[in-house]
Amino acid sequence: MKVGIIGSGDVGRRLGQGFAAQGHDVKLGTRDPTKKEVQEWLKKTPGTVSVGRFSDAAAHGEVVLVCTLGAAAEAAIGLAGEKNFDGKVVIDVTNPLDISKGMPPGLFVGTTDSLGERVQRRLPKARVVKCFNIVGNPTMIAPRMKEGVPTMIIAGNDPAAKRKVGEILVAFGWEDTVDIGGIDGARWLEALTALWVRVAMNVGTWTPAFRVLRS
Ligand SMILES: NC(=O)c1ccc[n+]([C@@H]2O[C@H](COP(=O)([O-])OP(=O)(O)OC[C@H]3O[C@@H](n4cnc5c(N)ncnc54)[C@H](OP(=O)(O)O)[C@@H]3O)[C@@H](O)[C@H]2O)c1
User: What residue owns the CA closest to ligand 1's atom 48?
Assistant: First the structure.
């Protein structure tokens, strides 16, 4: 599968490694392909990997991931070119974290709207699935932890797109996925991240994760 990643931060690079390790053809998108971290990622990541601008990555992917700073997500999609996302499964990993008042963060959108919904509105012909935003990037691939495998919670309007994301999750080692319905569920997945940070600050690890326990 061809995978396009919009965003070259810790998340984009980590997910890019994960997809490449599964044998997918990954293009990492950035505004500056000469950036040191990106060039290092290119050198050290085994598999079929390349780097380009946001528009190259979006055009390349059959599946496209949005992994930019939350406040820049819509601008990055504009740079990537909306048409490049048409008909595609788009995985939105962003969080609307607001650290203008310091830590722990607030959210710059929430409860009546979300970044997931904004991304879907911006890309009406794409099939957006909110996924991966509720864990730290080291946990996104092979999420086996000391106390077991956490739960990934996803949301999106298109059932087939969510099935595709479910297959990706299984390949990455996620044993338990909960689908909470339409993309409006992103409001609560994004809010969960604000809670995640507060939990992380109080349990002595920067990579905690949540698991759904059923009675
Ligand atoms: N870090 C985590 O563990 C984690 C976990 C879950 C979810 N998330 C969410 O995932 C997203 C990515 O996080 P991150 O930690 O990898 O890095 P980040 O610093 O939040 O974002 C880096 C990316 O944002 C792009 N960007 C920044 N300002 C921009 C602007 N004005 N216009 C266009 N693009 C801009 C950068 O572009 P260039 O490539 O051009 O520099 C880079 O690709 C965030 O929304 C974050 O909240 C993070």
Answer: 11
Beta carbons of 155 and 186 less than 8 angstroms apart:
yes
pLDDT over 70, % of the chain: 100
pTM of the complete model: 0.99
Tens of pLDDT, residue by residue over 123-132, are 999 999 999 9
Ligand 1 centre from 214 Cα, in Å? 34
What are the residue ranges spanned by the domains of the chain? Answer: 2-203
12 Cα–ligand 1 center, Å: 8
Distance of alpha carbon 78 from alpha carbon 94, whole angstroms: 16
Which residue is closest in CA terms to ligand 1's atom 5? 136
DSSP string, 78-102: HHH-GGGGTT-EEEE----EE-TT-
Ligand 1, atom nearest to 134 Cα: 6
CATH 3.40.50.720 fits 2-203, yes or no: yes
Structure tokens at 127: 């099939």
Three-state SS for 179?
strand
Here the tokens at position 99 are 């650290």
Q: Residue 104: is the preceding peptide bond cis (ω within 30°)?
A: yes
User: Best mutation site among 6, 17, 36, 67 for ligand 1, i.e. most ligand atoms within 8 A of its Cβ?
Assistant: 67
Distance 215 CA to ligand 1 centre (A): 37
